[in-house]
Specification:
There is one protein chain. 42% of the residues lie in helices and 0% in strands. The chain is an all-alpha fold and 96 residues long. It has a domain at 11-45 and 55-78.
């Protein structure tokens, strides 16, 4: 999608902020805005896939969550002790 920069509108508070930053740094407002956009591009969260079909596992891997818990078994499902009772109804855990 192409955007004409002259079509970008800033509200009065945003204009004041941009003008204040430009004055404080002694740089043209265009330079300040370009730097801000550059920094935003480096710090914004990763984008979702175009089709939105990213699995939870893929997202967790991308975010560095898979394998991030230390001091635990690497895979709880590989030890039958951790899987005991999994998927069964247990009256002790019900709220009623």
């Amino acid at each position: 999608m192409s955007v004409n920069p002259t079509d970008i509108r800033l509200d009065p508070e945003q204009q004041r902020t941009l003008a204040d930053l430009a004055e404080a740094t002694g740089r043209p407002w265009g330079d300040v805005l370009r730097e801000a956009l550059s920094q935003y591009g480096k710090t914004r969260p990763p984008q979702r896939t175009a089709r939105g079909d990213e699995s939870f596992y893929d997202a967790a891997t991308r975010l560095g969550l898979v394998g991030s818990v230390k001091g635990c078994p690497p895979d709880l499902s590989s030890n039958p002790d951790y899987m005991e009772g999994f998927g069964t109804s247990d009256a002790r855990t019900s709220s009623g």
